[in-house]
Specification:
The complex is a heterodimer. Chain A has 11 helices and 2 strands. Chain A is an all-alpha fold. The longest helix of chain A is centred in the last third of the chain and has 31 residues. Chain A starts with 17 loop residues before the first helix and ends with a helix. In chain B, the strands form 4 sheets. Chain B has a 4-stranded mixed β-sheet with strand order 8-1-10-9. A two-stranded antiparallel sheet of chain B has the order 2-3. A two-stranded antiparallel sheet of chain B has the order 4-5. Classes of the chains: A mainly alpha, B alpha+beta. Chains A and B meet through α1, α3, α5, α6 and α7 of A and α2, α3 and α7 of B.
């Protein structure tokens, strides 16, 4: 029995509910999508570039909505900037508390927004939709090795944004959240899986000709699902150890967990059926309706949402 | 004799629950001095408690812990209620301070933990972190609030309102060293009288590095909803393992994308040319 095997929790619930849930959802998707778009652009084939740009287009709005949600969740929203600036008398300066994931995350989100904006503008220039000289100079700068470095650094920051949300919950004294160190990794894995689904959904609507990328996204999603399931198992084990597994998986949260697990079914089905082979649709254009293409990614995204809902709400019940 | 209050010295409360009579004078004095609104909770139906819990507008709360045994106890061993005037513990290792992203929670010149209301933006992270469920949002001001250990009174050389009002000296205010000596003497006295359940909580550094508001309890800490020493853990314990989990997950995710790219490219090489599929 570990020292914390009978953890006592007397902390009050912070009432982090819908705004935070949507924030965690979007942060996970934005983080994973930026990373996947970068991989497709710099390590994929030229045929992957349209989907990479689609990813960079999607990341910016998702990233910009995040701080709005966080601000709305504050009890005193007009003081949102107090996260960044210390307003304590005689201590005026920038705020950064490395021990508080919320503080670290706010800065990470701010920096990520800059990366999202630049990559968005770059994608617009590459698509010929933006011809402003400054934007074109920026895009020209990103054409060379600097672009690769920029996007790799941006990916690291975005992956952090996708995962730190779980650490934010763990660094507390709440039941369930503080009983496991696995939440950060789990949210990241789930965010990656959801991001692959987002790109598959978006290309179904906007890049029907870019089927070459679908194969990569499908296989990647299966592997992310595998990682996610392993981390769910780790979460269960850590919660059993602390005696809060009943709270996390009890009624009615079990329903949300079932939905979350249903979201892993497309990936599991692929792993069992096709393993790491590409399905026909992943290499060549095949006749399927947009609705048929959208079913699996939509299920995955619902699962990503339900996973976060189960974690957030069960601990505060 | 009134305590002389000097900045730079550590002050706190010693609450001796063995002499608490549940009169709630501390609650009233706290509300009155700090101009805290009434909670209007109505009749709770929970013993003599009509406050319920500590909150953004209730900074002192007398807990009535119903401990009436089903069977008649032996003479002298009867227990009815455990009474405890609960308050912010002003921890030396304060979880709320550790996680506050705005720097609103500070340690004062009296070694107490204080929330600057004009700095707090109501993120509520301190609520999730406080292991004693002390902090809450005051809906009338939309910021996190809790006991200030009467910071304004201390600055004026006065003891906190609750200690001043307590009719049985269950709540004692003073310099920490002096309070600890007093608590030890009282503990030893009760033990000598055969009251073996009497125990000190938070007087030493075993719980959150020591509590500036510490207690003499008449049961195990858990009975009062106080984490015992083994469970008095800081939220920051999950920082390193949490970030490591993210890092390892990111590496495995990266590995997954490398494998996915390789497999996709391999299969793309084997795949029929576009259009060929349609001819089959």
């Amino acid at each position: 029995m570990t020292p914390f095997a009978e953890a006592q929790h007397f902390a009050g619930a912070p009432d982090w509910t819908w705004y935070i849930l949507f924030y965690f959802f979007l942060a996970g998707l934005a983080g994973g999508t930026y990373f996947l778009a970068t991989v497709l652009r710099y390590w994929g084939t030229p045929a992957d570039e349209p989907v990479a740009r689609l990813g960079f287009y999607a990341v910016l709005p998702a990233t910009l909505i995040c701080p709005i949600l966080l601000t709305l969740d504050l009890s005193h929203p007009l003081r949102f900037w107090h996260m960044l600036v210390n307003t304590t008398p005689d201590e005026f300066g920038l705020n950064f508390n490395s021990g508080a994931p919320m503080s670290v995350g706010v800065w990470a989100l701010l920096v990520a927004s800059v990366f999202a904006l630049v990559s968005f503008l770059d994608a617009l220039v590459r698509d010929g939709k933006l011809r402003h000289p400054l934007a074109r100079r920026l895009a020209a700068f990103l054409e060379g090795p600097a672009g690769k470095v920029w996007h790799v650094v941006g990916s690291a920051i975005f992956l952090f944004v996708a995962g730190y949300t779980g650490v934010l919950l763990a660094v507390s004294n709440q039941p369930i959240w503080s009983d496991s160190w696995a939440l950060g990794g789990l949210f990241l894995a789930s965010g990656l899986s959801g991001s692959a689904a987002v790109l598959m959904l978006l290309m179904t609507r906007y890049r029907r000709g870019a089927e070459a990328s679908r194969g990569f996204l499908e296989i990647a999603e299966r592997l992310f699902t595998m990682l996610e399931l392993v981390l769910v198992a780790v979460l269960v084990l850590t919660l059993i150890d602390d005696g809060t597994v009943d709270e996390a998986f009890g009624w009615p949260w079990l329903l949300l967990w079932l939905v979350a697990l249903a979201g892993t079914l497309p990936g599991l089905r692929g792993l069992v059926g096709d393993r790491l082979r590409v399905t026909a649709g992943g290499t060549v254009a095949v006749e399927r309706t947009a609705a048929a293409w959208a079913v699996a990614p939509a299920l995955i995204l619902i699962g990503v949402f339900a996973l976060r809902a189960a974690v957030i709400f069960s601990a505060q019940a | 004799m009134a305590t002389e209050i000097k900045p730079g010295e550590a002050y706190g409360f010693f609450t001796d629950t063995s002499v608490c009579i549940g009169c709630k004078a501390c609650e009233v004095a706290c509300k009155e001095w700090n101009q805290l609104p009434a909670d209007d909770k109505g009749f709770l139906g929970e013993s003599l408690d009509n406050t319920g819990e500590l909150s953004g507008s209730t900074w002192r709360h007398v807990k009535f812990i119903d401990n009436v045994p089903d069977e008649t106890m032996g003479e002298g061993n009867g227990k009815a209620f455990l009474l405890m005037s609960d308050v912010c513990k002003h921890c030396q290792h304060a979880s709320c301070m550790d996680v506050c992203p705005t720097g609103a929670i500070i340690r004062t010149e009296f070694d107490t933990v204080f929330i600057q209301e004009d700095v707090c933006n109501g993120c509520r992270y301190c609520i999730a972190a406080c292991p004693y469920d002390v902090i809450d949002i005051d809906d009338s001001r939309n910021v996190a609030r809790k006991c200030t250990l009467c910071y304004d009174r201390l600055q004026g050389g006065m003891e906190p309102a609750c200690a001043k009002a307590c009719p049985t000296d269950s709540i004692q205010f003073g310099p920490l060293d002096e309070l600890r000596d007093r608590a030890k003497r009282r503990h030893d006295q009760l033990q000598a009288q055969g009251i073996k359940e009497a125990n000190l909580y938070g007087h030493d550094d075993e719980v959150y590095g020591g509590l500036n508001a510490f207690f003499l309890l008449m049961d195990k800490p858990e009975a009062y909803k106080l984490p015992n020493a083994a469970n008095a853990v800081l939220p920051g314990r999950n920082n390193l393992p949490g970030y490591l989990g993210v890092f390892v997950s990111a590496l495995l995710g990266l590995l997954g994308t490398v494998i996915a790219l390789r497999e996709r490219n391999r299969h793309a090489g084997e795949a029929p040319e576009p259009g060929e599929e349609g001819r089959r």
